């Protein structure tokens, strides 16, 4: 999936969190900078950060965390989602019904894990209003600067 030739490209270069960073810190983060390869290496994101819609052109950033991905995509979670017979039930399960049914207070779920295991603390996928810019879509105000994709 993250292959630079046949996929969406890889991680951003590693960068430290700013000294005054007050956002969510994802464990095991490995990037945070601009995507370096693949079809999104020269991708410009204009929406955000957060709810800013005035236009703030910058590179697409990714901050992979294999640790966080593994915590949020365990086989028992996936198996539970696959037991669902309709879309509504499946969507609720992806968003954490598994833990709610066990009365377990946690933020871990497959949906959340997808955003933050790719976007991490500093990547665009960690910014919910902008999260779709980490996918293959060129919607939501982004401008493609790499026409080869």
Total number of distinct structural domains: 1
Number of strands: 4
Q: In percent, how much strand structure appears in the residues? A: 5-15%
Strand order of the largest sheet: 1-2
Figure out the total of helices.
4
Cα-atom radius of gyration: 16 Å
Give the helices and strands as they follow along the chain: EEEEHHHH
**What gap, in angstroms, lies between the N and C termini?**
15 Å
- What is the overall pLDDT average? 76
Helix amount: 25-40%
Structural class: alpha+beta
Identify low-pLDDT runs: 133-149
Principal-axis shape: globular
Largest sheet: 2 strands, antiparallel
Describe the structure.
- By secondary structure, the protein is an alpha+beta fold.
- The chain has one domain.
- Helix content is 27%, strand content 7%.
- The protein contains 4 helices and 4 strands.
- Helix 2 packs across helix 3.
Could you give the topology of this structure?
Elements (H helix, E strand, L loop, with lengths): L11 E3 L17 E4 L8 E2 L12 E2 L6 H7 L2 H8 L4 H15 L8 H10 L30
Antiparallel strand pairs: 1-2, 3-4
Q: Quick recap of the structure?
A:
With 149 residues, the protein is of the alpha+beta class.
